[in-house]
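Q: What would this chain look like folded?
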Amino acid sequence: MKHSAQGAAGPGAGTAAAAVRIPVQPSAADVARDRDREESQSRDGSRARGRVRGAGEPDGAARGEHTHGEPSAPGPSVPGPSAPGPSTPRPRTPVQRSSVRGQVLDALRAALVTGELRPGEVYSAPVLGERFGVSATPVREAMQQLALEGAVEVVPNRGFRVVERGDRELAELAEVRALIEVPVWLRLARTVPAERWAELRPLAEATARAASSGCPATYAEADRAFHRAVLALAGNEELVRIAGDVHRRAQWPPAGSPAARGRADLVADAHEHTALLDALIAGDPDAVRALVGQHFTGARQDSGVLGL
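A: My prediction, written as structure tokens:
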């Protein structure tokens, strides 16, 4: 089927047609010369466009953009002491989204320990984002992680509710911690040399300093670091991960509690770390056994549960 000249041109063909020069009454020599020139220009243009597209960039002329060496629009830049010159490309700073999410997650975890995020209350990601000076997205992602950990629950179209815990649940978590950690501590006391225990002294001292500050969140982090280092001596990564998860959950205050443990309780707990380390370094199994039971159960020495 034959196409008319108008149909062959189609929409948008006017621009291309206007670029074609049609000589008036051309001679045979003119026709041959023009044909050779047009074929040469076509080959040169194809190679140029191929180079541009080969670099992964679209043909600016085809989009109707200026192609006269204009500098590209600068991307996000880091503020510095002086602005770069017009010909100097500004450094691009990738958005550290995972870092922002991690910082928000740490802040939310601290707020849970201190009781700033109150059990039973619903918090929206945009409101918390304004508090932290970030968008709602990293807050929402951090809250979803806390939901996986059991700290909050999703409330559709509202936000996230902090889970309410009673004394019974906290007692059960303490029992689970004892069942996991106590046998490991007692086994390590028989197998780990004194010099390895001595290497943990800075972590025990860090818990004492954190307790003296009276900040529950600061102490919670130092406490987990000390216990994580002890359990790591067993060489079982799954043990460290599971015990750390239970430990973190056990640090959240129960519903109705105005705040987490007071400074006196924190100082007493940190003192047990130091005493335990002294007994482990000294190689005193009886003292280690008694101190481990005290550290995980307090005054309640349940030998049936702990296997002591």
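The first strand starts at residue 122 and ends at 123.
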